[in-house]
Write a structure and sequence with these properties.
mainly alpha, two-stranded antiparallel ribbon, 4 helices, globular
């Protein structure tokens, strides 16, 4: 779950640099995610399917800005330097 928390935080922070507060609003719409804090985000995850939760997060951003948002999410994952297998990522991020 720590890797998922790191990925979510990286994605939300990267999107926030582009979208501003809308990034937090969209993330808060994902079932199982709770994000608090302003400068230092605190991520709480309550999900049985982390891959699905990550997919839902990326899809929220995609709804607003299309394919560009997906690329931003992929870049955020790379920059996070998290050790994550492609099988642990939703298809939208592979």
């Amino acid at each position: 779950m720590d890797v998922l928390r790191l990925l979510v935080k990286s994605i939300v922070e990267e999107q926030r640099q582009i979208m501003g507060p809308i990034a937090l609003e969209q993330a808060s719409k994902v079932l199982g995610l709770r994000i608090t804090g302003d400068r230092d985000l605190k991520i709480e995850i309550n999900t049985k399917n982390p891959v699905d939760t990550l997919s839902q997060l990326v899809e929220k951003y995609e709804e607003l800005f299309g394919a560009t948002s997906i690329e931003v999410c992929k870049e955020a994952i790379k920059e996070s330097q998290a050790k994550v297998s492609p099988t642990d990522l939703p298809a939208i991020l592979v």
